[in-house]
Write a structure and sequence with these properties.
Radius of gyration: 19 Å
Strand order of the largest sheet: 1-2-3-5-7-10
Helix content: 40-55%
CATH topology of the largest domain: 2-enoyl-CoA Hydratase, Chain A, domain 1
CATH architecture of the largest domain: Alpha-Beta Complex
Structural class: alpha/beta
Mean pLDDT: 96
CATH class of the largest domain: Alpha Beta
Largest sheet: 6 strands, mixed
Shape: globular
Number of helices: 11
Low-confidence stretches: none
Strand content: 15-25%
Length: about 260
């Protein structure tokens, strides 16, 4: 597929995907479709171990859905757009590879939904986040009501969703919505640093951790423990497990092959 609204750079096992709709990178149907297709391509690319998603420019990661597209849609049209958005966020959430959101600016509405679908979030100290949808007479439709409460708890999620007010990066850190806050000019470099560290880890073990945590979050404890045991067994059966343990015993750096 040819990408018009996305840029992708692959370097040292790390793919950096940039949503390129300046100045605020709003999400429209084409962006969703391109993101879905690019995630599928990167999933199949054995040279990519970690993915970073960010926005172009310095003003916004993603400042929400494209209201210019939404305002002219009828009920069927908006449901179709919503279906595409939910499929894209679920694709990102369920990739076998770690995905880092580099929040270089505003992350509002669909932009925050996109960030919540990623595994880790590194945020500019100048960023503002929020779900302003209720003030527009709508609600988040890309998973925001569900993923947010799994991070901050139901009470705090309702507060943020009901009032729809923007909050700053340090509040997002306190609420554990983001993992790390850095100066604005260090967002990409900090994300790359994390991605490069992750790219050196055994990929099957990372995949099993992600599956155990992501899928286990939607299970009761006993079912989650069964899933964890299965993922543990899958990781233990790899050559990388043998290499990792032998390297530790021999006090040397392991060389992982992804097998």
């Amino acid at each position: 597929m040819s990408y018009v609204l996305l840029d992708c750079e692959i370097n040292e096992k790390v793919a950096t995907v940039t949503i390129n709709r300046p100045p605020v990178n709003p999400l429209n149907t084409q962006v969703f479709k391109e993101l879905y297709e690019m995630m599928e391509e990167l999933e199949e690319n054995s040279n990519v171990h970690v993915i970073i998603i960010t926005g172009s420019g310095e003003k916004a990661f993603v400042a929400g859905a494209d209201l210019n597209e939404m305002k002219d849609l009828d009920t069927v049209g908006i449901m179709n757009m919503n279906e595409v958005s939910r499929a894209t966020f679920s694709k990102i959430e369920n990739l076998s590879k770690p995905v880092i959101a580099a929040l270089n600016g505003l992350a509002l509405g669909g932009g925050l939904e996109l960030a919540l679908a990623c595994d880790l979030r590194i945020c500019s100290e100048k960023a503002k986040l929020g779900f302003p949808e209720v003030g527009l007479g709508i609600i988040p439709g890309g998973g925001g009501t569900q993923r947010l409460q799994r991070v901050v708890g139901q009470g705090k999620a309702k507060e943020l969703l009901y009032f729809g007010e923007m909050f700053d990066a340090h509040t997002a850190l306190e609420l554990q919505i983001v993992n790390k806050v850095v100066p604005a000019d260090e967002v990409i470099s900090a994300s790359v640093e994390w991605a490069e560290k992750l790219s050196q880890k055994p990929p099957v073990a990372l995949r099993m951790v992600k599956q155990a945590v992501t899928s286990g979050a939607n299970m009761d404890l006993d079912s989650g423990l069964v899933l964890e045991a299965m993922c543990f067994g899958n990781a233990f059966a790899t050559a990388d497990r043998k290499e990792g343990i032998e390297a530790f015993v021999e006090k040397r750096k392991p060389v992982y092959t992804g097998k």
